[in-house]
Amino acid sequence: MPLITLTPKGLFCEKANVFIDPWRKVNKALITHAHSDHARPGMGSYLSHNDSVDILKHRLGIGIKIQGVGYNKPITINGVEITFFPAGHIIGSAQIRLKDNKECWVISGDYNISEDELIEAFEPVKCDTFVTESTFGLPVFQWPETSEVISDINTWWQQNQNNNQPSIISAYSLGKAQRVIQNIDHSIGPVFTHGAVENVNKIFRANGIPLKKTERLYKNDKDIVNKSLIVCPPGASDSMWIRNIKNHKFAFASGWMALRGARRRRNTEKGFVLSDHADWNALNEAVKLTEASQVYVTHGYTETFSKWLNENNIESSVLKTLFEGESLEPKNVLV
Ligand SMILES: [Zn+2]
Ligand SMILES: [Zn+2]
């Protein structure tokens, strides 16, 4: 029996009796990060990185039984050493390594190998078997430099401000929103948020994470709003909340914006290619750095990426999760 197996409830380590990012109720869940396709409600207990604890309580219920752990701090359960390593995806995101005296596995969760100020940088971890995500596992996904994208956002905001128009940018409330907020030029004007974003910001600030200043947008002076950048979650993009912000300009920040079709479907006037995930080259780079002899591909363009790895002499197969396929559509906001 291998150290990790796939069961109908999710990836399972029988020896330690733990599941990794399970999608059905189990006793003990190890959670790579707090996005909803990885962290489901109803588990008997949770183990996550310290920075995910309060976010998970906020999202799954204040009463959940949860323990936090730091990066690079091994915990041993019944001869299985379990260690969380930075995944670079969002604050508190982790790759989880499980190893015993025979096997060593790393479950990547979602990851991003480019560096960002607030997020602990992705750490390559050597292993025998690597379970990788592949949200953007097609060669067409090649991210521009973050600094270039941010500079484009600043320019867009400044132009709208010059025309006396508020700028609204849609960014997923956990992860992308903070990436935008931390990197943009706050000297241009005030930065407001939708409540869903501000709730996450508050939790991070309460945990000592030095996120730059934002303020929840209530009914504010029009002159101030017209100078501002407003960060809202994708779910709010067709809402009354947005429609009430008169004469605004609207943009999406997402890896999917690399696809013209996604921009069109979203009817977006402006799309900034900004992702919390590895692009095609970064996925390949990450796989190589693990030196794994076996790679399982999950979440995203699994077939394509797995086939590519096999053609390049890395033994690989697809690992189907409950959420397979969902992440292929731009309407899914976990990017
Ligand atoms: Zn994620
Ligand atoms: Zn995910």
Description:
- This protein is an alpha/beta fold.
- The chain folds into 2 domains: 5-140 and 277-328, Metallo-beta-lactamase, Chain A (4-Layer Sandwich), CATH 3.60.15; 146-272, Rossmann fold (3-Layer(aba) Sandwich), CATH 3.40.50.
- It has helices at residues 53-60, 146-162, 176-183, 195-206, 222-225, 240-243, 260-265, 280-290, 302-311; strands spanning 5-7, 10-13, 18-20, 28-30, 45-49, 66-69, 75-77, 80-86, 94-99, 104-107, 129-134, 167-170, 191-193, 215-216, 229-232, 249-253, 270-272, 294-300, 315-318.
- A 7-stranded mixed sheet has the order 7-8-9-10-11-18-19, covered by helices on one side.
- Helix 7 links the parallel strand 16 and strand 17.
- The protein is globular, with a radius of gyration of 20 Å.
- Residues 325-335 have low confidence and may be disordered.
> Low-confidence parts lasting 5 or more residues at pLDDT below 50?
325-335
Strand content range = 15-25%
CATH names the topology of the largest domain as: Metallo-beta-lactamase, Chain A
Strand order of the largest sheet: 7-8-9-10-11-18-19
CATH class of the largest domain: Alpha Beta
CATH homologous superfamily heading of the largest domain: Ribonuclease Z/Hydroxyacylglutathione hydrolase-like
Roughly what is the average pLDDT, rounded to an integer?
A: 92
Derived structural class: alpha/beta
| Biggest sheet statistics | 7 strands, mixed
As a percent range, the share of helical residues equals 10-25%
How many domains? The number is 2
